[in-house]
Amino acid sequence: MKISNLDSHPHRRFNPLTGDWVLVSPHRTKRPWQGQQEEITKTKRPEYDANCYLCSGNKRASGDINPAYENTFVFENDFAAVLPNTPSFKNDSDSLIISESVRGTSRVICFSPRHDLTLPEMSLEEIGHVVQLWKEQMRELSQKYAWVQIFENKGAVMGCSNPHPHGQIWASNRLPNEPFKENEKQLEYFKKNDSPLLVDYIQLELKQKLRIIEENENWVVLVPYWAIWPFETMLVPKRHVCRLPDLTQEEDQSLAAILKKFLTRYDHLFNTSFPYSMGWHGAPGNLEDSNHWQLHAHFYPPLLRSQSVKKFIVGYEMLAEAQRDITAEQAAQRLRECPNV
Ligand code: H2U
Ligand code: ZN
Predict the structure, then answer these.
(1) Ligand 1 pocket test: which of 51, 74, 75, 78 has the largest number of ligand atoms within 8 Å of its C-beta?
(2) Rounded to the nearest whole angstrom, what is the distance from the C-alpha of residue 335 to the centroid of ligand 1?
(3) Among 131, 149, 276, 321, which is disulfide-ready with 301 (CB 3.0 to 4.6 Å)?
(4) Which member of 166, 281, 296, 298 is catalytic?
(5) Which ligand lies nearest the alpha carbon of 106?
(6) Edge-to-edge, what's the strand order for the sheet holding 11-14?
């Protein structure tokens, strides 16, 4: 079947990274919407907010006082989801009722002392500090933990509790579901093809040029063929890189540059500070051989057709499989049409 038919006919697409399928219904994009609209908050924020627990010099829930930090700042989450000293156990005497202990740590990472900025609004130098922070944290924590999840929840619709630019890190001694699937699938592909799955995939994408949004010397941003969220993207280095700390200085700089550009496109798309959950996936620290892994970041934005209409993962998606209307190619086209400055 020709690619062009995928613009009008319902079909399923395969995600080789997880083994999941997604249902695509492109004929449905003209559906009217009379459902929930998200509230838009557009108040201009101050550079410093005395009530913000992330601004420098302020007191947190724990009673600790943030230092007068100049670039970035990391602290242990006062309400950590995982703890470093949990005793080790596994309950599997009954094959249907199984549990195991988890040890780990949770941190909050402030991207800037400025309360009013977001990543794309920061300078290249300031974004560079965030890149260095990501690398340092990954280097440190992956020596101790099997999985280090660096992520950012941006925007109230993503459940972010504070607009101050920040992300989080949850590290644990267990490999969580998503990286577990990605590890299996990348290993399977590597054994068969002797080449990393995502390195091969971006070569295909760079040739087809249908789903690429932004590209520079070292990086590419695209809407994956199998994307679920309407404007989901993946950021991948062009070279084979297993982990964040393996990036060269030049790749750090061009990472800051591509982040600024493509996140600016996101903000232009619905003329709003674009909400999303993003996070880094790279080879787990404890692997003996990690050549099947390719570093990448996922961006999952919830918005569908305007700054106030979000996509819901409900109904068929909860009970059967994920579904989207607008195709990955159409989404990429829309994002390419948005300015990156
Ligand atoms: P979100 O905005 O993505 O919810 O992240 C904020 C995190 O900050 C959240 O995990 C932590 C919350 O537990 N936090 C502190 O560690 N100390 C505080 O004083 C308030 C919030
Ligand atoms: Zn603040």
Answers:
(1) 78
(2) 31
(3) 276
(4) 166
(5) 1
(6) 11-14, 21-24, 322-324
Q: What atom in ligand 1 is closest to the CA of residue 152?
A: 3
Cβ–ligand 1 contact at 25 (below 6 Å): no
**Beta strand 322-324 with 309-310: parallel, antiparallel or unpaired?**
unpaired
Is the whole-model pTM more than 0.85? yes
Q: 3 pLDDT band (50/70/90 cuts)? A: low
pLDDT in tens, 29-39: 766 666 777 76
Strands (DSSP E) found in 243-319: 276-281, 296-300, 303-306, 309-310
Q: Match 């079909």 to its residue by tokens.
A: 11
DSSP state, 133? H
Going by C-beta distance under 8 Å and a sequence separation of 6 or more, which residues neighbour residue 308? 37, 38, 39, 40
Ligand 1 pocket test, pick from 52, 108, 277 with the greatest ligand atom count within 8 Å of Cβ, gives 108
150 CA distance to ligand 2 middle (Å): 20
CA-derived radius of gyration, the chain: 20
Q: Is 228 exposed, middle or buried (0-12, 13-18, 19+ CB in 10 A)?
A: buried
Closest atom of ligand 1 relative to the 61 alpha carbon = 19
User: Tell me, what's the pLDDT at 40?
Assistant: 61
Q: Is the CB–ligand 1 distance for residue 60 below 6 Å?
A: yes
Q: Is 166 an active-site residue?
A: yes
Ligand 1 centroid distance, CA of 340 (Å): 31
188 versus 159: the higher-pLDDT residue is: 188
What are 187-218's pLDDT values in tens digits?
A: 999 999 999 999 999 999 999 999 999 999 99
* Helical axes 328-337 vs 249-269, angle rounded to 10°: 90
Phi-psi group of 200: left, alpha or beta (phi > 0 → left; psi -120 to 50 → alpha; rest → beta)? alpha
Helix, strand, coil share (%) of the chain residues, nearest 5: 30, 25, 50
